[in-house]
Write a structure and sequence with these properties.
elongated; mainly alpha
Amino acid sequence: MNAFEEHKEELEHFEQMYGRERGRLAVSLDRMTNALVLVGQHGVYCTSQRNPMVPAMDLRIIAQELEHAKQLVQAVMEELKRKRVAGSKS
């Protein structure tokens, strides 16, 4: 099942609220947040050999990449919002 089928109801809800592009980005952010939660939960059990107080290096890298992806998506959403607001003022 692809993302559009699996998250159909959530996509429809957010697309109606924010428009097609921003709605899809909002659902993407939710998916990334869920992935970050899962990585964090896994990090509790999969710790570094050198320092058992921190998650394993691969989990830290995955979490960092997901966090960066979220920041980029959020920046796009803000830019789309600025353009929409600027367009409605003219």
